[in-house]
Amino acid sequence: MTSKRPSLFAVWLVIVLCLDGRVAAENADPAHYGQLPYARSVSVSPDGRHIAYIRRDGDADYLVVARTADLSVIGGAQARKTKARHVLFATNRHVVVSLSQTVRSPRVYNQWEHSGLSVLDIQTGEQISLLKDWRKLYPAQTDIGRVVGVNASKGELYFPAYVGKRNPSFNLLRAGLDGQPAAIHARGTEHTIDWYVDAEGRVLAKEEFDEQRKEHSLHVRRDTGWSQVYVEVGEQPSAAFGAVSADGAQLYFSRDTEIGDEVYALSLSDGEVNGPLFDTKGDEIDRLLVKDRGRELHGIQFSGLLPSYQFIDTHYQQFHQSVQLAYPQSTVVPVSASQDGIKQVFLVSGNEAAGDYVLLDTRTRELDVIASQYPDIPRQLIGDIKVVRFKTHDGLSIEAVVTWPLETDRKSNLPMIVLPHRGDGFYDFVRFDWMAQYFARKGYVVFQPNYRGSSGRGKDFRQAGYGEWARAVQHDIADGVDAMIAAGHADETRICIVGTSLGGFLALTAATASPERYRCVVSIAGVTDLPRLLFDIERQFGEHSLALREWHRRLGDLAHNHALQVASSPVSSAPTFPAPVLLVHGDDDSVVLPNQSARLYKALKKHEKPVELVKLRDEDHWLSNNDTRLAMLKHVSRFIETHNPPNR
Fold first, then answer.
1. What pTM did the predictor assign?
2. Cα–Cα distance, 180 to 182 (Å, whole number)
3. Angle 595-606/530-541 helices, nearest 10 degrees?
4. In angstroms, how far is CA 527 from the centroid of its own chain?
5. Among 441, 457, 323, 278, which Cα is nearest to 14's?
6. Interval 358-409: pLDDT, tens
């Protein structure tokens, strides 16, 4: 199977209406930007007659079900005291919602996001919790809501979960959408990491990674038991499995090669590998696309400042391109489709839309705006999003996303906010970034550099950032700031830097690496103490865990050099910290523990440095609660405007 990138194909589209219908405000109200997206996670029913999505109302999440014919709402439900994460129209009658809630237990180190599944019957309005009384589950797990298959004829759902109170195994479960109790569909081991089934729920394969032996393998169930069809030994899996062929005979995986990312097919009968299968031209692959109600391969998504796609079915390629042509300066992401492909949903985010979910009818060519993530921000209030490129001191070409204030005739001598993303494995691209847009609306130019270590530009560029967070990455950020100043865009005396997670580490480190440059620093759920971070990860996941090994890989030569870890940590720079610091952290953060911000706050206070610490109650790493996310933005805005006012 070889797919070529087709030529452009334009389809006439008519953008007709918006389900939401709210009126946009003209001022830069933090609530219009800082609240959770008003709409998210849209799914189309198999027959294309209905859509379901999560809608926010205040601090509560609601499941909304509407007709695709006229977008009229026919029903829904409230997610009480939980966070709604994802929706799936499993059958024409049943909508599955994955939920999570932060949980603590004295038996488990650290808190975690406990997850679960709920089903809404849109005909009767009945709601069912699939695992409410299932006592066999291991308590501390976060990924139960990941559905790997649906058997519509039997009304069954298939999803993996850890089972057992001690030394749990990662089993495949099944549950009836009508309330049939959950049961073990296939048994895994403590090394199992994923499951693959066909459209009938037949188990095709289980994927395993033995952390101590560093062995990645794939096993197929035969009449005589499990048979290994793939094995590889290495620090981490090099093959990223993720999709199934339509006939269930093959699994697809992507892999870094010497010429770039490629996609291959592995035969489940004999383990033979075929490929590469797509014309990737060496571009980096973000993910394998799969169809809605299973894991059948649909296409691939390429990284890029405007991400691109390659579909197996050329009709889908044409329809996506038609929507992209309607929004040429925005990212257009395929979200969901009916089984026959007539009804398709896309998320449009960028210069033309603040996160609009649009519904395409491929027969009529009409494009309906279902709802917007940020309905109070119309197109005319979106700050211009552009890409700039600059050279580093060692000759490396770096790309950055720049968001300009609305006063487009003034692009010189502006106050600037530097907003480094959350670390390797991520990159900034052309999209509506709510924080960047908020500060652009306030009058700042926002600079988001894709420093070395960012994904999106291939393996070599990504690996160039390993272990360089306090060294070469800092030079990249500084060189980008200098380029904005040299071009006359930024006022060198009015710059602040803001980062989240690993971006918080970068922001704090940048302030000490270039003390003359920044008037203030903001770290949101940021890393401040590398030795303590590694200690907490090892204690939570184990010394041989894939999680710890991943952090060691990202740290490069810092991984086993304690002295260098200490020297590179922002907490060690507390005695000489040059700029006012704002630390923001959710007390439910299970990814970067709150002790990271607390330790730096204590150290800065000890040395009488200007610092504030804002604790977000009941908030996680992803800022999943509406009120606390908005409170965070208000605190950050107040702090920045105090130390770096947009209009001095």
1. 0.91
2. 7
3. 150
4. 19
5. 323
6. 999 999 999 999 999 999 999 999 999 999 999 999 999 999 999 999 875 6
